[in-house]
Amino acid sequence: MRKPNPLMSNIESIQNFYLSFKNKDLQTISRLCDDHIEWITMKGMPHGGTYVGFKAIFEDYFPKMLSNFKEFHAIPETFLDSKNHVVVLGIYDGVSKNDKKFQVPFSHVYEIKENKIIKFRQFTDTQRIHESLN
């Protein structure tokens, strides 16, 4: 089992998660996530739904979802701590394969247990993302 860093606050862990995701640092991401992490994305997102486990999320869902875009960035702006949850408000900024640009606000809710991310929940305007794909 991968060991978490008990000295990091929940917000620091999530900030580190976004930085690691941006840098495609799967090793750090895997240290921040529970082995059985549950990842719930909006059903209106490309390949949206519920995924469980690191491989299902980072080796199946993300490559498929990201294949729809030339660029796709989740830019966090605000981090809100609530005991074992961190809420992140931000913007998806991207370009579809059709060269259509989009900026869509998001809310991400992370649940943390024993310094590990155990659950992720996404809220966003999927229609605006789909409009960029057509």
TrEMBL record:
Q: Name one GO molecular function term.
A: isomerase activity
Per the record, the domain of life is Archaea
Q: Where does the record place the SnoaL-like domain?
A: 15-118
Record carries keyword Nucleotide-binding? no
Q: Which UniProt keywords apply?
A: Isomerase
Chain coiled-coil ranges? none
Q: Which Pfam families match?
A: SnoaL_2
- The protein in question is named Ketosteroid isomerase-related protein
Protein species of origin: Candidatus Nitrosarchaeum limnium SFB1
